[in-house]
Records
---
Amino acid sequence: MPVGSLRVVVSSVSSDAHMWNLVFLQLLLEEAGHEVTNLGVCPPDATVMDACRGADRPDLVVLSTVNGHGHLDGLRLIRAIRRDPELALLPVVIGGKLGVRGGDDGFGERLLDAGFNAVFNESEAPVARMLADFGAFLRTLAGNLAPREPAVAAGAR
Amino acid sequence: MPRFADFVRTAAGAGVLVVQPRMGFGPLDRMRAGLTAVRDCRASTVGTVTLDSYTRVGDFDSARRALRDGAELNGFPLAAHGVGAVRELLDEVSSRNFPVQVRHGSPLPLGLFRIMVAAGVDATEGGPVSYCLPYGRVPLPEATDNWARCCELAAAAPDPMHLETFGGCMLGQLCPPSLLVALSVLEGMFFREHGLPSVSLSYAQQVHLGQDLEALAALRSLAAEHLADIDWHVTLYTYMGVFPRTPVGSFRLLEDSVRLAVHSGTERLIVKTPAEARRIPAVEENVEALEFAAAVGAKEAADCATAHCPPPAETGLLEETRTLLAATLELGHTVGSALVAAFARGVLDVPYCLHRDNAGESRAVIDERGMLAWSRAGGMPVRVHRTDAMAAAPLTAARLTRMLSHNERRYDREDIAGSLLRSAA
């Protein structure tokens, strides 16, 4: 795998059947050189968690949801993930339309507190800003995971 | 004939387009108020009860809990309210002059059908393919078996339910019309095969008026051929993809869907509201959209009488659809088994659909003419126009976004251009 390339699981949440957001994210991530496993729509919590275990463990889970139940489904799922010893430290982010009302719902804080590494709530920020933030998050994560130049290489010169 | 179909037929006979909202609320009193407002507005309407996402996936407990805790639901929790309450609600608001359709989106709706039949619901919608591939993870053969039992239950009801196919709306956008029409007809044939006496065939407005007119003409021809011995009508959906953000752009898109309905002889139209780009619309916004659609419909029907009908495109859509139908039906002894086999072999393959039982080898784009076209056929007997630069260009996330927002841009731009013209005048 090339340097800076992440293994990413893309998924909806249990009650959300919207698909285009997932198709888009897969193309976006693949163009940036990442490797995507797309779990598709309406995954039960266990499906998402099982897709992240053992040898399948990705570098990042991206939950995308637009049906307005994200603040409920996302909260339940991230609590289950953080309670699970194997998955407690897995980077997980959520984005989309997370509430029903479409205004500033204040869900972001609650979701971050519950254990998401980042929240991209379309109700709280314009889509372009959200995608820029998401891109920056990916670069930071890829940078942190990229193997550093081995120290001996410098020392041996 | 079920009173739902009877109402639509009577209106069509009088040259009136029936209009219908999408609408669903959690609490009974809000649902009742919504239905009453739709019934009493200045339009020929049927009512809609859209179910919430928990109920759709069979998670009745979560729906019950949300209802009890007063949490916001995105639709009506049918099972949580139960047969008695639903029957009471329908007795109160629905009638021969205001039949109500329950809309659910469930791939395994047998439990919901039991409640709907027991509560005396007039009509519902969906289909073994259209509510399986885009909306869940249920294997297609399992959904097909479940839907067969649903149809038989609905057909055996004291007043058989009217059933609408959702096959003409796959993924809402970016599916070429030949496949939409084929799936709508195939699901209609599946309903007929399982005993339903009255069905409607859906089609969703796409990106080009001429192409949509050609598609709806093909749908009517094929329905007449394959459903000759049962009652049927056609239902058009106002564009289901990414919606314009400006109110004027939204109303212009809605207006074009009414025009499409009237000039294609479509009997029923399911409208969208300007609010839906951002959130679930309020009752007043639905009423406004319904009354607007009815007014445009009346004007267009009058224009039609004096022969101002726009012409359909001539892209060979009927022939391509016929080929898809024939290639599917030869794969099984029943429509259900043929559908399952066709998807397993990729003879039917919905572009961009992530479901595991969809081959996922086909691709569709908006071509140089502004019409939907195949850019990759996969295993389907359809034509790819290799000379079309748009059809040949690579698919990127940015391009997908541009195609998904094609109508949004088109209609919002009209708003901007219109305001410039107005200020110049």
---
Amino acid sequence: MKRALFAGPVRRRLFLALLGVFVLSSCVSLPRPPAEARVVPALAEAHIVIFHSNDVHGKIDNFAKVAAIIDAERKSGADVFFFSAGDNFSGDPVVDRYDPPGAPMLVLLDRLGLNVLCPGNHEFDYGLEILRKFAARFRTVAANIKPRPGAFPELKPWVVLNARNGIKIVVFGLIQIEAGNGLPSTHPDKVKQLRFSEPLAKALELKKLRSSGHVLIGLTHIGHEQDLLLAREMPELDLIIGGHSHTRVDPAENVNGVLVAQAGSDNLFLGRIDLLLKNGRLVEKKGRLIDLSQMRDEDGAIKAMIAKFHQNPALARVIAKAPLEISGKNALGSLMTDAIRQAHGLDVAFQNNGGIRLNRLPQTITLKDVYTLEPFSNQIVKIVMTPAEIRGLIKTSFERQREIDLQVSGLSYLIRTDSAKQIKEIRLSKPDGSPLAEERTYKVGLPSYIVSSYRFAHRDAGRSLYATTADDIILYLQSGADLGIYRDVRRAFWEIAAESPRN
Amino acid sequence: MHVKVNGQTIEIFAGARVRDVLRKYSRAEWTLVRKNEKKISDAHGHEVGLDGELNGGEELVVQASAPAESQS
């Protein structure tokens, strides 16, 4: 099977490539083979297979197929590795709300024999302690993270993997940072103990690693566009395996002599890289994606584990008790917006009625109830708004269905229309009944759905707070909030103004 | 931050994902992508997931999905 990958026309190409390498090596100065290459027996050939995934985001179901594919390759005698380019967490409550968070992912990746992990921005979502457990179990690389002294000793800038025939594979990691704050796209409180540097600049400092192994790989979580820039700036690399942008790169593309790969997202695809080395030199490399929906074989033991994880007992755990059921859009929307406002210290928060997917919360509230109430994983976006801009948002929301659409915390509002439901006035009031100060701005929290779907003017484009509405509700319920206040709560009003008699 | 969709510059909040930019670009196109009648790719023609994370300055392209093969 191993030979079949390079059979027929491929074998002829390989011969021509080897001939080219021989001719070139006698004409130009190629990078010197690493010292370790001298220990490789003459004419030794090495075929290395690297499977890779990225941005799995808690979607564990296809791991039974991934296990079957990797296991079959191992049994065929190939030298097999498995890499993760980050963001294994955040996206499915089965994994995210396990006790401890992320445990199913750790167990499954361990069973799959994960060799190297580059953390993505969402690897920090559960806090540093959980990531430390992962880093203690798997080789974890990120060259542009500098922990404060003693904070994260398990994290390495690069590692060297020993393949067969004395082949050494050097793998360094890079994680994305935002242009604005220089931090990965996660809540800033999650990464307080760490410092980050610009990934491409850091990579260029690592060119010297070329001489430390036979194969040099960048395992990145910086997005495909940045991977392409890295390939153009660093031809010393043999391969970049990326993540973050959820890009399906199929087949892997050759950029400036560097093979660039990424395997989409959500465990829908598994990336496969084939490397062929002769006498310590990489002579052929190629990559493709395996569409897991087309695969039938599954590892039975892994499948059984996944089924058990889906019964996550934590989802049935009671997180709050209310003095009575909380029912209706007004009450549920008020609770949701209070949760958003409290979680982020905002002045005002809104929630659209269409995003409230439950008619009532029972007195005994479980995690599962929260994810039923808000199943969309909407991120919360903070926008600094003037009262006039808030009125514009409310006007747009009302005009979508000609009815109250937005629930609110931090203020109440009254829409006055004529009998044809044309808006005549929108009055905003603070919780104490006084009007909002027209000259000042307010920190407003909105689900990302509203920000991207509703047409309203706002000078501040806003910034994600990297938390979902469900996250905020769970925190709010666990904080012991007084749930009795939602009995007859109402903060959004609509009245039809009496019309003047016409002459 | 700014992201281009089919050549049109869209201003969107920092930390937005592909789905956010697409919804802001066009509700109609968003609906077609959700129905798999259209697909969304990066500037290099690679298909991207709706939860793909974006940096300012990136470009997206919405185009018709390849027609399904005839069964007849």
